[in-house]
UniProtKB/TrEMBL annotation:
Membrane-crossing residue ranges in chain numbering: 12-31
Source species: Anaerobaca lacustris
Record-linked Gene3D superfamilies: Glycoprotein, Type 4 Pilin
Name of the featured protein: Type II secretion system protein
Keywords carried by this UniProt record: Membrane, Transmembrane, Transmembrane helix
Keyword Cell membrane applies: no
Top-level lineage group: Bacteria
PANTHER family xrefs: GENERAL SECRETION PATHWAY PROTEIN G, TYPE II SECRETION SYSTEM PROTEIN H
Amino acid sequence: MRRSKAFTLIELLVVIAIIALLMSILMPALARVREQARTVSCRANLRQWNLFFSMYTEAHDGKFQAGVGSGHTYHWMNTLRPYYQNDHKIRCCPTALKPIVDEHGNTAPVWNVFSAWGRFWGEGYAPEGDWGSYGINGWVENPPADYATVYENFDTRNNWRTPGVRGAAYVPLFMDALRFNIFPLPTDNPPEVPDMAWQGTQHMRRICIDRHNGGSNMAFLDWSVRKVDLKELWTLKWHKTYDTAGPWTMAGGVSPSDWPDWMSRYRDF
């Protein structure tokens, strides 16, 4: 009689165990590759935004958008719309594509740093609403004279109104954010937990978010793009008189124990 050839149960279990072992080894590596791809794509988006801002300033006597007045007509989402052709995807980091508010106005039950802000409707917004996961440094705008002293409790006389300023490589322009604009101050406290929503005038909390392995991606006024470590945020030149040696910097005397526990593993600056 001819014997049939087939796998025994033990042989099948061994094969399954080997496959499971290989998957356990490969899955973390694949996850890292996917995250790296999203990070690269995010920086590509920001380079595109550098181009949009550059084109806008060249067409407007070297000045940035006003950022104020007539609803949100002069904010970057609407002012630069002719350049990015209302592409909602390019307003979003690839790690944060889904807005916290859906097309029906319902807010998502779960919010975190991988959510996009919005959706917003009204004057200066697209008919389908605007959303995104990037924000502009609010100190890089050119408000008109009647806003030239104070806007939302921030002294706009400190604004960078044109690109190419001295030290432009350390002046943030556009970045990963939980809100479409940010007015950081050197005294802003870090968020107590990773997914803490920003509140009040603590605007540094809008951008102190770990979207890219310990940091966030950022475009600068010299049209460069790079990853910024979270504790490094307090050392950048956000506005003309910003103290880069403030209380949350090593130069200002901060110690590792002063930071929230979730930030203890990040590099000090």
